[in-house]
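Sequence in, structure out.
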Amino acid sequence: MTITREQVVQMLRQAGFVVTHDGWICSAPIGAFNVLISAARADLEAELESLRNDAWQPIETAPKDGEVLLVAHIFNDQIYWVEAAKHRYGAWFRPTGYAVHEPTHWMPLPAASKEK
């Protein structure tokens, strides 16, 4: 997550800091730092929850509707292999049609890159 200078100045002002047009802090009321820290903590906790939701999940919880997912075999916190696969006919298959044996975890495919 990238925060612009303008966003930082805005957050400081919302927390009660007096900030000059060029970004210098002139003064801050008692408790302003606590407000700022609380806001930052809430943003970080939201980001962490988002990362947890994108983490590897047990294969038993994977959608079995034919959607292509990333599947992996993970043991003792080590990833042994990762494949793109979808569930059909009661098993996991690569897009090429070959079976994927014993996946233990899954996650959604990452979003496509916007680079040209």
